[in-house]
Design goal:
two-stranded antiparallel sheet; eleven-stranded mixed beta sheet; about 25% strand; about 25% helix
Length: about 300
């Protein structure tokens, strides 16, 4: 069975200032999503599932549909909303945003029944990274559970010159399996050194520290673990009055790995990573895409139109 690509595209681009998922950065107005889908098709993925919001759903579906991709991959849409909660729960007064990346991932459960990869819509992962994940997922024996994967990037190659970034900082065993992953929401370079910022101050990170860019590979059992853990997550967030609590993918991955419920292989890639966290990142992203086209990695017109 061909793996599925789950694209997290529900973010409203608060820092970027617009719906960055739909921003055309290629020569023919291709978005970063287009390059990820193009790479997924040639890596053997059979379906793409977009996680979006109802507020821009019609506009999004009009642009990103099976016809756009030449019918080469099946397309489905699911929706992440603030009130998508388990029975018996309601949105706490004052909560304004959905519950984070793992909450978004959970929306794919009704339509995904095969191994799947997860990516952010606004990150450029590269051909090799998506190909590696495709090979890993396709090679899993039917019915596999708890055999997950992640593509790791060096933190020094994932920064923005225009502000802090969020990354899952990883510790990896000698045989290439994840030991722990912690979401750090404010990483930047200060005075030549990479640091992450917490309430208690700044903490250094080595240049080659492996980080997650939310390119994960899972089997469908991950949806069950997500649903089971979401309730205690909500209980704690509500009890503490934390109106900004985020149900991040690394939060659950770390729990499953530490409890030895699952293991996660860290795949290394030669692909360049880049993205548009901030509007000021856009010119450099456009140029990097042009450089890859000039190198023959992508055609001038991605979809031949």
């Amino acid at each position: 069975m061909k793996p599925t690509l789950l694209v997290l595209a529900a973010g409203m681009g608060s820092r970027y200032g617009s719906l960055k998922q739909m921003d055309g950065i290629g020569p023919n107005k291709e978005a970063i999503i287009d390059y990820s889908i193009y790479d997924a098709i040639r890596a053997g993925f059979g379906k793409v599932v977009f996680v979006i919001r109802h507020s821009f759903g019609a506009e999004f579906q009009e642009v990103f549909n099976a016809e756009r991709f030449g019918g080469k991959i099946a397309v489905e849409y699911v929706f992440q909303e603030l009130d998508a909660l388990p029975e018996g729960y309601k949105v706490p007064e004052g909560r304004e945003k959905p519950w984070g990346t793992n909450h978004a991932l959970m929306m794919g459960a009704p339509v995904i029944h095969e191994p799947f990869a997860v990516i952010n819509a606004d990150d450029f992962y590269g051909q090799d990274a998506i190909a590696q994940m495709g090979r890993y997922l396709a090679a899993l024996p039917e019915g596999s559970k708890g055999e997950y994967a992640m593509v790791g990037y060096e933190v020094s190659k994932t920064l923005s010159e225009n502000g802090t970034v969020s990354r899952g900082v990883c510790t990896v065993s000698g045989d290439g399996y994840l030991q722990s992953i912690v979401e750090r929401t404010k990483i930047e370079r200060q005075n030549g050194q990479i640091v992450y910022i917490e309430e208690d101050g700044t903490h250094p990170l080595a240049e080659n520290t492996p980080v997650s860019m939310n390119l994960f590979g899972f089997t469908p059992d991950y949806f069950t673990y997500s649903a089971d853990f979401f309730r205690p997550f909500l209980d704690q967030a509500i009890a503490s009055g934390n109106l900004k609590a985020e149900f991040f993918i690394p939060l659950l991955v770390n729990k499953l790995v530490s409890e030895k419920t699952a293991k996660l292989k860290v795949l290394h890639t030669s692909s360049p990573w880049f993205g548009v966290t901030y509007k000021e990142d856009r010119p450099a992203t456009v140029q990097k895409v042009l450089d890859l086209i000039a190198a023959g990695v992508y055609p001038q017109s991605l979809w031949g139109k």
